[in-house]
Structures are given as C-alpha cells and as structure tokens.
Amino acid sequence: MFPRALEPTVDGLVALGGDYTPAAILEAYPKGIFPWTGEHPVPWFSPDPRMLLVPGDVRRSRSTRQAVRNKGFEVRYDTAFVPLILMCAVQPRPGQDGTWITPNVVETWAELNAMGHAHSVETWRDGELVGGLYGLSFGRAFFGESMVSLVADASKVALVTLCTRLERAGYHFIDCQQVTDHMLRMGGGPVDRPSFLTRLKAAVALPDGWQSDAG
After folding, report:
1. How far apart (Å, rounded) are the C-alpha atoms in residues 22 and 44?
2. Do 73 and 144 fall into the same domain?
C-alpha cells in the first residue's frame, strides 16, 4: 500500500485513501507514514521536518520532578487504554475544531493494543484517571499519538516516566510527528525527513523493546 519511494507534497501528504485498519497502521509507521485522521478519504502524511524526542534527552523541569515525587500521581501501563484515548478525543485543543480521533480510530487502536503493539501510559491520582498518552511501539521506536491532562502536570508525568522506561530498554527515539513548542520545551527537536527515515530504519529493524523492561 505504501511504497518506500513515496514523496510527500509540500505539506507532507504522501497518500489519500485506503482503509484505517491495524494492518495499514503497522505497514505505514515503520515507513515513516501516519494518518492525519480516520475520516475517509484517509490522509497519510510524512512531514519534513519531523519532531523526535530521544528518551535520555527529555527535560525534567523542577516542577515536573516535584510533580512526580509529591503530587500523588501513579503511572500505569495499558490498564485503561480505551478510556484514555476517549479522554484524548474530547480534550479541547487550541486552533482545532472537533477531533481527529474518530470512532474508527478508537476501534483500530484498541485492536492494536490488544495485539500488543499500541500502549497507554496512564496517570492516575486518588484512583482516578487524570491524564496520560498513548502510542505505538515498533522495534526500538515509540510513536506518540496524543496526550491529555485533566489536572496540571499529568501528561508531563506520563511522558517523563515513559522516557525512563524507553531509555532503559534502548529505544532510539519517540516520534512526535509535528514540531510543537511543547515538545521543544520537553527536549525534542526537528529532524529532516531523510535523516529521520535513516534513523527509523535502524530502530524498527530491532526486536520490539516494550517487553524487555517491565516499567
């Protein structure tokens, strides 16, 4: 479905159409391609530049370190995948009208989670889910999809905790897809598309590292 020779348009579009399914996701991501939405015709993107975060480079600000230690957060993995993705879907975001997380996106990613490819990093406090993030693990690359916070610092705690896990397991990077001020502040940086594809090829050639560390 996605030949490696595909060249993106100026806005990063490489293909339009096809089905939003686990098989399509598992083919696209190792080739540096991701869907912008689940609505048909499905747009598939591979932008230049690409935002990457090396796990060991994540910035743990003083306030984030204090939040990890003193704000009563507990980070869990894969215990509330669907509730977390639904929480991401309804989170208001500046400059966005509605959500790209359509029902078929939720269904597809729930299947990927059941297959052991997609994972949720959940922040809990006082027994309630208050934020986190979810994404896809493939080889030694983690592809971040969306983050959400119902209380201050919840998604940051999830991210820095995930980075500790990924660094221990030898992950090369977290693919953050788009360049954003938030991820720049967290330690990410833009990488040109050819360099990204080279690094991606090396990372996904390795066995999946998620189970190599219990978190």
Report:
1. 14
2. yes
